[in-house]
Amino acid sequence: MSEPEALSAAEVDAVRAVWQQLGLPGLIDVHTHFMPKPVMDKVWAYFDSVGPLVGREWPITYRADEDRRVEVLHEFGVRAFTSMIYPHKPEMAAWLNSWAADFAARTPDCLHTATFYPEVSAPHYVEAAIESGVRIFKSHIQVGNYDPTDPLLDGVWGAISDAAIPVVIHCGSGPAPGQFTGPQPITELLRKFPRLPLVIAHMGMPEYDEFLDLATTYDRVHLDTTMAFTDFAEEMAPFPISSTQKLRDLGDRILWGSDFPNIPYTYTSALDAVTRLGLGDDWARGVFYDNAARLFQIT
């Protein structure tokens, strides 16, 4: 969506029809990206060249300026969303947190988001974020290339666990594995901090089953649907049919996430990918709104 007018009325109507037909007041999207422009530009440049890494092109469907992207979510009927930020090096997280706090203050429907990196200062700026009213954290193990069990993060995880603030954590090995991705580091982390309210991004793709098992074991673990079940993801990392019952059983801990704007397909097609699982209207209502409303106390 390189131009604002590229968003058609038909697409808006199709998105709104999904939640209206379920009798919901709208959508809650726990996985959307708003970042400082220089950072977002670099992220988009990465995706523009990512084809060779994942064997296919990755066009940004909703490439537009910040204000327009907020407008698009409002037009879709998204009642709450996030500004998923993440550092790839030391001494970056505090700056991102400052930007995200300002963005949330001027964007009322955005859940105040913060992030962190394994560094000596991390417990201090995480505590500061908690005191300032942060609603959600983002951790990106793949991009940050860090071990979530790094002792430098012990104070971070402890503070987050005590405050019961959800952390959307990209820890699965998709779309490309990293040194510390996969279920084992998260298993070790949860053994040490069993009350951590983690939200496993992308359903833990491609290690879906293992991360669903962690959610079964730890009652504060959720998973978000970001990119999962879509035609694009199914070609790379198909969701195993054998895990469908676990998905059904954990229906109260599955959250809608889109990866907007950085998706190579339409928002509508991502919603359709979830509904065509055929797990029932109650399950879908939980995923698209009710579960996140409960988790974030949204009325």
TrEMBL record:
UniProt-listed SUPFAM superfamilies: Metallo-dependent hydrolases
Listed A to Z, the keywords are: Lyase
Q: Where is the Amidohydrolase-related domain?
A: 28-297
Q: Which InterPro entries match?
A: ACMSD, Amidohydro-rel, Metal_Hydrolase
Q: Which CDD domains match?
A: metallo-dependent_hydrolases
A Pfam family found in this protein is Amidohydro_2
Q: Does the keyword Transcription regulation apply?
A: no
Protein name as it appears in the record: Amidohydrolase family protein
Species whose genome carries this gene: Gordonia rubripertincta
